[in-house]
Specification:
Elements (H helix, E strand, L loop, with lengths): L1 H33 L5 H11 L5 H14 L5 E6 L9 E5 L4 E6 L27 E11 L2 E8 L14 E5 L4 H7 L10 E3 L3 H8 L4 E5 L3 H6 L10 H4 L3
Helix pairs in contact: 2-3
């Protein structure tokens, strides 16, 4: 008799359970959607392991921005404009294979400073570099040879990068010899130019929807960048491009 009673109770509860499942599922997915992107600390640790010479804060913010924009991204380049142009300040990571692909010199714009960059903008014809998060586009051959177009993802910070023709390209003024002669790298019109010898493999490692994060401790950008503080309503939009 007891078995029959338990069976009856189970059968009676089944419709209630089936009715409740969609509600539980909706609640669960709502919690997931409202949660911040996961893996920031893990990614930060990975970047620190692969590039111990990089500024830890630059890598931490790069991890935050990328986790916000595209947690499944394969490649990431980090540029640290707080360092002088005489030092290697560009790192390219293969995040899926956990490897550092490049550690390189990189130029900044003529309008951003001499050996050290300290002024940045989104303004056309300023010849200044831009900071923030970029998504890479296609490679092409232009007046600077093999180049990589960049899409600036941050409104009023770098969103005019494509219009300004801010691209990654090789340049003869990015070299140790140039540093020995002048005490700094040559400067671009705002583009992150690299050594000519590594232009092809570096660009090929980053082209087509990978990411570039350019860091400088600019107080206004740090306080307002959406990519450094994801919210539940922003996150889906950031990953749709």
């Amino acid at each position: 008799m007891l078995r029959h009673s338990r069976l009856a109770t189970t059968l009676f509860s089944l419709p209630v359970l089936l009715f409740s499942l969609p509600l539980y599922a909706a609640s669960f997915f709502a919690q997931v959607a409202s949660a911040p992107p996961q893996g920031v600390s893990t990614l930060h640790h990975q970047l620190l392991q692969l590039a111990p010479s990089a500024t830890p804060e630059a890598l931490r913010l790069a991890a935050q921005a990328l986790s916000c924009a595209d947690p499944s991204a394969e490649r990431l380049a980090v540029i640290d404009y707080s360092l002088p142009s005489t030092e290697a300040r560009m790192w390219v990571f293969d995040l899926h294979r956990h490897t550092l692909l490049f550690e390189e010199l990189v130029s900044h714009g003529q309008g951003s400073g001499d050996a050290v960059a300290d002024v940045f903008s989104n303004t056309p014809e300023s010849h200044q570099s831009s900071i923030g998060l970029f998504r890479t586009m296609n490679s092409y051959y232009g007046r600077n040879g093999y180049s990589l177009r960049l899409e600036g993802l941050e409104e009023n910070v770098n969103h005019l990068a494509f219009e300004r023709a801010i691209v990654i390209h090789g340049a003869d003024y990015v070299s140790e010899d140039f540093i020995k002669q002048t005490g700094r790298l040559g400067r671009s019109h705002g583009c992150p130019a690299v050594r000519e010898e590594i232009t092809y493999p570096l660009i090929d490692s980053l082209k087509e929807s990978q990411y570039v994060f350019a860091y400088y401790p600019d107080k206004e950008w740090l306080a307002t960048s959406a990519y450094l503080r994801c919210t539940s309503d922003q996150f889906p939009q950031l990953a749709q491009r």
